TrEMBL record:
It catalyses: N(6)-[(R)-dihydrolipoyl]-L-lysyl-[protein] + NAD(+) = N(6)-[(R)-lipoyl]-L-lysyl-[protein] + NADH + H(+). The active site is at 451 (proton acceptor). Binds 1 FAD per subunit. Residues 5-334 form the FAD/NAD(P)-binding domain. Keywords: Cytoplasm, Disulfide bond, FAD, Flavoprotein, NAD, Nucleotide-binding, Oxidoreductase, Redox-active center. It is found in: Cytoplasm. This is Dihydrolipoyl dehydrogenase. Residues 353-462 form the Pyridine nucleotide-disulphide oxidoreductase dimerisation domain. GO terms for molecular function: dihydrolipoyl dehydrogenase (NADH) activity; flavin adenine dinucleotide binding. Its EC number is 1.8.1.4. The branched-chain alpha-keto dehydrogenase complex catalyzes the overall conversion of alpha-keto acids to acyl-CoA and CO(2). It contains multiple copies of 3 enzymatic components: branched-chain alpha-keto acid decarboxylase (E1), lipoamide acyltransferase (E2) and lipoamide dehydrogenase (E3). Disulfide bonds join 49-54.
Length: 478
């Protein structure tokens, strides 16, 4: 007998599990299909983010930064520490424990909200039927009034550097090194490459990042990207721009990477190589030929502004559709779709999705960059404030970076907030809140910010937009 549901969600990652929980909370009979198996062989919810992405990488970033602080940063505080060492397997084990705790938490939320978990691979058939191939190979079909596709993404593999079991790895493999490689290569200077490179560099690896593009962080604000390159280089990351990898050869537990750059043909030997050149949507065996859902040539599913596909009642969210591949974007799309299925008129402001790189210092932004606004011909005023002038940052010995606020010169409306520095993600989130309510730079400048806090840097940058900063010299207007 075919099981019938109001909503069937394919995929249990940040887009899928959130959509399923929200749909159930709205009174809809909901099932969520997931096939991912954790290290213990059990189906685990949470997708890439919880299992092998956002959460485990942050666990390693925090562990490695604490080690780096103990080695390099304690002395200035008067703390003498000798013989500090890192137990890498213990660090990785802690990371695994956090992952298990969180994925188990999602399972508990499914039970609490009455979501039916269906283990296996989901495939959309015609007429909103979903075929599920169980882990044991058994096949069954679910009938749905509505289907939400949230199948996520996977790391892109490249022919010049095919993955091996232990030497050439993707972002998932880089989370499970059991020792610190002496020489580590990273292909790709994007979010994932910089974060994972930072982890192992702090633990003592000599890290070289090979980036094919000539510009560093081309989607970030140019001033912030320039500052980031300077800081990360000072930390020991060797970032080679315009370096196009052409081949790799594994021999005697090392890999020789061939690449071309401005100096011509180059070769470099590494103990480990991380391939972090981006991600692609998971759409393999996802849609039957007669499902009616359209995809582009790269495997992304076509959707409108409300994540509806070309088939009424079928939606797609997260990494499998247009827009940034971010967990928080996927989750909010999942909530929006569940609410629209329930008859509400929910929507997302795609102009205000924050982005974060969790290096130290963090790099974060929301809204438009200075170069984009100038290209559009928008007249702007810009205010900046360096953390070097922040009392709180000085007290924490964390003074690298700055806050940048960009406002429309005519209306004073804030169009972008860009930060590199301590708590950058949290400061940008304050910008998101203000911008969602149409804040002006003057509005932010008139608010009372507690002292001493990192947040004061945002306050001062907003004041600086109109030449009113107190704790830094204002730029003279021409």
């Amino acid at each position: 007998m075919t099981q019938k549901f109001d909503v069937v969600v394919i995929g249990g990652g940040p887009g899928g599990y959130v959509a399923a929980i929200k749909a159930a909370q709205l009174g809809l009979k909901t099932a969520c299909i997931e096939k991912y198996q954790s290290k213990d062989g059990k189906v685990a919810l949470g997708g890439t983010c919880l299992n092998v992405g956002c959460i485990p990488s942050k666990a390693l970033l925090d562990s490695s930064f604490k080690f780096h602080e103990a080695q390099e940063g304690f002395k200035i505080h008067g703390i003498e520490v000798k013989g500090v060492s890192m137990d890498v397997p213990a660090m990785v084990s802690r990371k695994d424990g956090i992952v298990k705790n969180l994925t188990g938490g999602v399972s508990a939320l499914f039970k609490a909200n009455g979501v039916t978990l269906v283990e296996g691979h989901g495939k959309l058939l015609a007429n909103k039927q979903v075929e599920v191939t169980g882990l044991d190979g058994a096949v069954k079909v679910l009938e749905a009034e509505n289907v939400i596709i949230a199948s996520g993404s996977r790391p892109i593999e490249i022919p010049p550097a095919p993955l091996t079991e232990d030497i050439i790895v993707d972002s998932t493999g880089a989370l499970d090194f059991q020792s610190v490689p002496k020489k580590l290569g990273v292909i790709g200077a994007g979010v994932i490459g910089l974060e994972l490179g930072s982890v192992w560099a702090r633990l003592g690896a000599e890290v070289t990042v090979l980036e094919a593009q000539e510009k560093f962080l081309p989607t970030a604000d140019e001033q912030i990207a320039k500052e980031a390159l300077k800081i990360l280089t000072k930390q020991g990351l060797k970032i080679r721009l315009g370096a196009r990898v052409t081949g790799s050869e594994v021999k005697r537990k090392q890999v020789t990477v061939s690449f071309t750059d401005a100096e011509g043909e180059q070769k470099q030997v590494f103990d480990k190589l991380i391939v972090a050149v981006g991600r692609r949507p998971v759409t393999t065996d996802l849609l039957a030929a007669d499902s009616g859902v359209d995809m582009d040539e790269r495997g992304f599913i076509f959707v409108d502004d409300h994540c509806a596909t070309s088939v009424p009642g079928v939606y797609a969210v997260g990494d499998v559709v247009r827009g940034p591949m971010l967990a928080h974007k996927a989750s909010e799309e999942g909530v929006m779709v569940a609410e629209r299925i329930a008859g509400h008129k929910a929507q997302i402001n795609y102009d205000l999705i924050p982005g974060v790189i969790y290096t130290h210092p963090e790099i974060a932004w929301v809204g438009k960059t200075e170069q984009a606004l100038k290209a559009e011909g928008v007249e702007i005023n810009v205010g900046t404030f360096p953390f070097a002038a922040s009392g709180r940052a000085m007290a924490a010995n964390d003074t690298a970076g700055l806050v940048k606020v960009i406002a429309d010169a005519k209306t004073d409306r804030v169009l972008g907030v860009h930060v590199i520095g301590p708590a950058a993600a949290e400061l940008v989130q304050q910008g998101v809140i203000g911008m969602e309510f149409g804040t002006s730079a003057e509005d932010l400048g008139m608010m009372v910010f507690s002292h001493p806090t990192m947040s004061e840097a945002l306050h001062e940058a907003a004041l600086a937009v109109n030449g009113h900063a107190i704790h830094v010299a204002n730029r003279k207007k021409r």
